[in-house]
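Appendix B. One record, verbatim.
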Amino acid sequence: MSVTSLLKVLEGWPIRGLHCRGSHSSVAKADQTLAFVPASPPLDPAEVQKLQEFVSRAQRLFVLTGAGISTESGIPDYRSEGVGLYSRTDRRPVQHAEFLRSARARQKYWARNFVGWPQFSAHQPNIAHLALRNWEALGKLHWLVTQNVDALHAKAGSQRLTELHGCIHRVLCLSCGDRTPRTDLQERFEALNPTWRAEAHGVAPDGDVFLSEEEVRTFLVPPCGKCGGNLKPDVTFFGDSVSKEKVDFVYQRLGEADSVLVAGSSLQVYSAYKFALAARDGKLPIAVVNIGPTRADSFVTLKLNSRCGELLPQIVLK
């Protein structure tokens, strides 16, 4: 299917999966801001042909995606040169140990997440997410693993999917393990803080925003509705680790694959990089589509310095 045909098919195609208040479009608009996408050279027809040949040869393609596939939906990443959160600010994401031990850290996190949630949850998949969903529907994509917590692959309709670091659209009780939709917690926040007001300044990759200490001080955080325990987004914070069960499951899916595509990831986080190492050790061909260098550049079969949203939809599947 050509990119033109794909766009026509996707127009008006309802998004399956998570549904969030404030979302008014099923697909990110073609003119979606690229403010968080680093500069890249114009798309080279030769690169399109190289990736076309790579994907055509694959029968059971394992795809690993990172923040670089979601920047074209308006969600910033952490590390991109010039536009990533680390290069624009001195902000760093919350650490797992700090969140667990400090009520103040939890209050600060949830206050900022409460303010950022309406904007963050409204982000929609872009054409790269939809291209991968199409590859799955046509039997090309064997399994998709994403490092992202934004639910955009799920919104796009991908089903053969593992969210390696969890999903911020779910909330986990640290005491009883109960999981609830993030939208339900937003309603509880609103009921508990009816007169609390704060203005968001910038949005981070996990929906966090910038708030003053004074704004945070009076924000009230509800406990788990079942046991009264502390609530946490159902994601792997920095400093935490992915469960062994999930890692083993991903290794199993990788073991069934015959090729690997990395899309929009520098592979700096070891929880994802280790799957690239396993693919190398298994002598699987590996292609990378990412703007800028990656941790795996020295051993991949093919490295393409392009935007995912420009290159992936160009691939024609027969």
